[in-house]
Amino acid sequence: MKKTILSFLLLSSLAVSSLAAKTTDSEYKIEINDKITIGTSRAYECVATIAHLAGFPEFNVKDYSDDFVNYDEYFNKYLNNQDVAKAILYFQKLKQQNGFAYDSVASVGTYLSDDCHSFRTSLKNVKKYLEPRAGDPKKIKEVVSAFYDATDFDTFYQSQMPAYEKALLPLYSKKDELIKGVECFESYYKTNVSKITITVSVLNGNNGYGTSFNDGKNLYFEPKLCPGYTANFIFHELSHPLSNPLVDKIVKNKVIMDYVEADFQGAKKHKMASMAYPTTKFYLYELFNRANTMNILKGFCDTSYITKEMLRDKQDRFDEIFEVVELLDKYRLGDYKNIDAFLPELEKGFIEILKAKQANPVEDNFYNVLSPDETSSFEVFGKTYKAEYCGSQDLTGFQDFVLRKYWRLEDAYNDVKEVQTIDILPYNNYPFPVKAGEVFRIEYLRENGKSFFEYERADENDYIDGEPVTRGFYLE
């Protein structure tokens, strides 16, 4: 088995409790087991703080402003300091000139040492991974280290231990699932992870970045994730370093790329660009990594959770996600040396998926498979009715269904009371009270991502075996 050394930076906030922390003079750490450690990073905190003060939107997410109060109260008094003003201005210029933002900010925090006065590897390596967007590594180290000293950053860092403990709790509370997930990850990629370090911060708001560190000998992956914990976020970022090399091979297949380029147009291209995937290669990195992650999650997550995550991917215009997950499931269940050994079958199967999509673009393109919760009207037999969203219901365990969503239509009963019905739904199947004379639209989602909808009306005194029921009908 190949040995992989990985390191995570997870950005999180929430909750409170007392954790058995192993706090050193430099950083706050909690050892989950001999393989997994979670904690905080002084260097990332420092770099992210400069980006926050420089007004970078991704480090000033409005909905998370309460998490920034301690930072603002401490650092605002230094804004007139020459070194602080210089750092802020330098970050702003890098952003304007080089597109320095998001993951490139996180990468600087990844390559700097704990006290920001040196790098964790040789300058040659640092230049290779930082220079394109972060500019001259010597210069940015000089700027950040001067900010660190001018603000007595270590004092601030040490003062935040209660906040760090609070931020770590969501992840710590899921430690058993994290341990199981790592086992499933190793089994899926047929590798052995020797060490995982998960670093936590509150400065990311709801953003996540899959940054990595290369010391010239080993590759360490240190992604920064948004607040809280979800299995998908953790293992999505863990999967990138082993999934992306597969795409590096796939993009050399001209047949595949011709299909992908033809599809990567208009609204889909715009959507991908808005999520920082502006090219077909970045799109395929994400598509295949999301698909690989879903198959890893099959080892320790329930089907309902996985299907909902894939549905979200579908709505984000990863149109082939369900088919690619199914294709990669053959690798998961098969007897292959590693995922590279599956590449010929993967390319062949992916071409068939792309051919089918090109032949049936409308039918296959169901990324808006369920109506948004805020939908406020529906057309029924040519007439539009106001609609009130009534919530959703988890159907996990019932046949192959995942969930259903309900809307109540206003003043529709008299128009549909004579429509022929073909099924029934007892009142006790609704997660809310039902009254005679009401009409509902109900949308269903299946495990394969397909959906359908029906309408149900509540007739007066309609009972079956003593139970009140609604009567269902379809528009076609």
Gist?
By secondary structure, the chain is an alpha+beta fold. The chain has helices at residues 42-53, 69-75, 82-98, 102-111, 123-134, 137-150, 153-159, 161-172, 175-189, 231-250, 254-263, 266-274, 280-297, 303-315, 321-333, 343-359, 361-364, 413-416; strands at residues 2-5, 8-11, 22-23, 28-31, 36-39, 191-201, 212-214, 219-221, 224-225, 377-380, 383-394, 401-409, 423-426, 439-446, 451-457, 463-464, 467-473. A hairpin with a 4-residue loop joins strand 4 and strand 5 (36-39).
Annotation keywords:
476 residues, alpha+beta, 18 helices, globular, 3 domains
Report what the structure shows.
This protein is α+β, with helices and mostly antiparallel strands and 476 residues long. The protein has three domains: 2-221, no CATH class; 230-364, no CATH class; 377-473, no CATH class. It is built from 18 helices and 17 strands. It has helices spanning 42-53, 69-75, 82-98, 102-111, 123-134, 137-150, 153-159, 161-172, 175-189, 231-250, 254-263, 266-274, 280-297, 303-315, 321-333, 343-359, 361-364, 413-416; strands at residues 2-5, 8-11, 22-23, 28-31, 36-39, 191-201, 212-214, 219-221, 224-225, 377-380, 383-394, 401-409, 423-426, 439-446, 451-457, 463-464, 467-473. The strands form three sheets. Strands 10, 11, 12, 13, 14, 15, 16 and 17 form an eight-stranded antiparallel beta sheet that branches. Strands 1, 2, 3, 4, 5, 6 and 9 form a seven-stranded mixed beta sheet that branches. A two-stranded antiparallel sheet has the order 7-8. A hairpin with a 4-residue loop joins strand 4 (28-31) and strand 5 (36-39). The model is unreliable at 11-17 and 362-367 (pLDDT under 50).
